[in-house]
Amino acid sequence: MEVKISKSDLIRAERMLTGIKSGFPKAFKRTLDKTASGTQTDMVAFVRERYNYKAKVLRERITVYKCPSYKHLKSSVRSVGPGVHLTDIAQTRQTSRGVTVNVKKATGRKLIPHAFIAPGRHSGKKIVFIRETIRGRRVGRYPISPIYASHPEVIYNTAENWPEIEKQADARFRKNFDHEVEVVLKGIA
């Protein structure tokens, strides 16, 4: 994701902060760090607006890299991770016919027949499983396979959603930059 700021705004801010030691780098670093942290919040809110992913699961997948120093003014937000278990979707329920889950808020609950919720073998975390089929017949006990929801990264990167996230980050950057320039000018930071 790239947030663009006009050259004239940068020059104007630099001129305003010339008399203050490390004034511009300080304001710019604090702006980048706050914008990156805020973008994480915006991304979580954006997905939870349309989908029933648990916020904790989304936050754990997003990593915020802040500026290491005033000389290296670069921060970023990165979202990666393994598949999302269906139990990490809010309102996943075990029923007598299988498991019901509502991944997308607009579609309603869907039944996954013959699925069941059980603790994972190594983690102990509750996971939705389904028994595998061999030669067209469902096996009696093992092997079983976990069922995953779509990756949130797929949701972020769609053609409709990505420009919206960038627009939110850009607005947050401009607001934070104005605030941080003001803070440095007042001598608070």
> How many separate helices?
5
Summed over residues and divided by their number, the pLDDT gives a mean of 87
Following the backbone from N to C, one meets helices and strands in this order, namely HHHEEEEEEEEEEEEHH
Strand content: 15-25%
Note the overall shape: elongated
State the major sheet.
3 strands, antiparallel
- Low-pLDDT regions: none
Radius of gyration: 23 Å
Give the N-to-C terminal Cα separation.
Answer: 28 Å
Side-by-side strand order of the widest sheet: 4-5-6
Please tally the β strands and state the result.
12
The total domain count is: 2
Helical content stands at 40-55%
Structural class: alpha+beta
At a glance:
The protein is an alpha+beta fold. It contains five helices and twelve strands. It has two domains: 108 residues, no CATH class; 65 residues, no CATH class.
